[in-house]
Amino acid sequence: MISNKKGKCVIDIREIKDLHSAVMGRVIIKAMNLAGLSTDMTHAHIKQAEELIIKEETSKSMNFPHGYIMKIIYGKAEIYRQEVGETAVGAKIETQPKTAVETKIKVQPKTAVETKIKVQPETRIGNMSESRPKERPGLKISILMKEDFAEKKDAAAFDFDMFEEAYKDNGNTFESIVLRRRKPGDFIMLPNVGGRKKIQDLFVDMKVREDQRERVYMAAINDEILWIPGGITKARYSGNFKINEDTKRVLVLEIHGSL
């Protein structure tokens, strides 16, 4: 998966391309450490590196702190300290603005770790203009002990500790989950249909009309989609972080307001 020779660390893209985003991020961080880069890395760097690997476009590259570079060379991602004058081709680091407005609410049950409602501001997508709804949809996030959890029809539930373990190395928590519309690179894990599935491809398979695709809300953390609530399309749930007999805490997602 990773080889290191004379200051150049090489990742075999075929072996990591279909890994969960959080696991792929850990592999990238390990490779960078082996290449000699161990400081000043940000979440934005890791996400851009993941996108570069997934696209697998030969000769494309991106810069990292302290003169390091990642370059795609025929199915391999090479990480090394670049020579003077060498620049990255085809990659740009962008940071995503934090747009979710958070409103904490008090919860009576003592077993609830925390409940939070996140209301996502309306955005203009492309050239499409929308009338502003009376109430913007929000995402209610609750963390409950398993014994206090009861399944609900219009909700999604996941093993909280599995989720936390998968994302802790990237600096994410359940507070990073937002309700939004689709973005390029979004994917969902669906084990029954081959594992990792791009949202664009999922919409095509589900025969969602093009004029409806930008109206579909989904619960996401970074570019991983956890839940697509029913409405315009059939509800879909990520196959990651499934509740099982060993689950102790449950992460519950519910829609606040109307979609």
Name a few traits of the molecule.
30% strand, five-stranded antiparallel beta sheet, 259 residues, 2 domains, Uridine Diphospho-n-acetylenolpyruvylglucosamine Reductase, domain 3, alpha+beta, single chain
Tell me the count of domains: 2
Q: Give the helix/strand class.
A: alpha+beta
N-to-C terminal Cα separation, in Å? 43 Å
Helix content: 10-25%
Strand content: 25-35%
Summed up, what is this model?
By secondary structure, this protein is an alpha+beta fold.
If you had to describe this structure to a student in words, what would you say it looks like?
This protein has 259 residues and is α+β, with helices and mostly antiparallel strands. The protein has two domains: 2-81, Uridine Diphospho-n-acetylenolpyruvylglucosamine Reductase, domain 3 (2-Layer Sandwich); 101-256, no CATH class. The chain contains six helices and 16 strands. The strands form four sheets. A five-stranded antiparallel beta sheet has the order 1-2-5-4-3. A five-stranded antiparallel beta sheet has the order 6-7-8-16-9. Helix 2 packs across helix 3. The longest helix is centred in the N-terminal third of the chain and has 15 residues, at 21-35. The radius of gyration is 20 Å and the shape is globular. The N and C termini lie far apart (43 Å).
SSE arrangement:
Layout (H helix, E strand, L loop, with lengths): L1 E4 L2 E5 H4 L4 H15 L7 H13 L5 E3 L4 E6 L2 E6 L19 E4 L9 E6 L18 E8 L9 E5 H8 L10 E3 L6 E4 L4 E4 H7 L4 H4 L4 E4 L2 E5 L7 E2 L11 E8 L3
Antiparallel strand pairs: 1-2, 2-5, 3-4, 4-5, 6-7, 7-8, 8-16, 9-16, 10-13, 11-12, 13-14, 14-15
